[in-house]
């Protein structure tokens, strides 16, 4: 409103400068009349100007109101869109962060599970290795415990009717062979393999017969090894050479059974290389 009054006064002053000439020689009445007409014209002009200014101001106010309303609508619209976009961005970001955290936790859980599995496998491997080591030791002990074997050579002098004895024992695992009696006493029931190898003594004198029978519990098994060469002349011949003969048998024994070489020729007919062996091949 103050702006409107100021514009009106400025316009009035301009009109006064234009229309207010120096009065000529007129009567007082004429002069007053003339001035009155001028003022009336000025007042009419001012009124029109005031109306115009009022119209301009009102139009400006309307446009300002429309502009403000439009700006408000635009701001509200974009504010709503910005708020919606911000909320969408915030929710998306939160979702991504939550998924990332979830992935990290899942990865950590997987790593923990993998670590636990690896530790379990390592522990199982240690247990298995220990069990394998214990089993190996047990097998070794069992194998050593279940092994029964002997080998003796060098027939000793003795009567023909008795069991052949030997002077040297090479192996006697299980302590089943008795060098004093020449008998093997079964320490563990099972299947045994016996081998006897007889070498006839090489001599310049006549040695015809060299033999032994495998006996079980002082009874012949019927397994015999025998050498009986013929002399081509009475002065010697085939008997002067050395001959070897072997035989073997698989015999089922129970604990306490005895096996030996019986019904042998004199020990003087055997070469020291003659031998007697036995081995447990399957325990009952």
Characteristic terms for this protein:
coiled coil; CAPR2-like protein; 284 residues; C1q_dom; 48% helix; rod-shaped; Jelly Rolls; Cerebellin_Synaptic_Org; alpha+beta; 2 helices; 5-stranded antiparallel beta sheet; Tumour_necrosis_fac-like_dom
Largest sheet: 5 strands, antiparallel
Helix- and strand-based class? alpha+beta
* Overall mean pLDDT: 78
Approximately how much beta-strand content do the residues carry?
15-25%
CATH architecture of the largest domain: Sandwich
Q: What's the number of extended β-strand segments? A: 10
**H/E order of the elements?**
HHEEEEEEEEEE
Number of helices: 2
Cα Rg? 70 Å
- Principal-axes geometry comes out as rod-shaped
Question: What would your notes on this structure say?
Answer:
The protein is 48% helix and 25% strand. The chain is of the alpha+beta class and 284 residues long. Strands 2-1-10-5-8 form a five-stranded antiparallel beta sheet, with no helix packed on it. Strands 3-4-9-6-7 form a five-stranded antiparallel beta sheet, with no helix packed on it. A hairpin with a 4-residue loop joins strand 3 and strand 4. The model has no long low-confidence stretch (mean pLDDT 78).
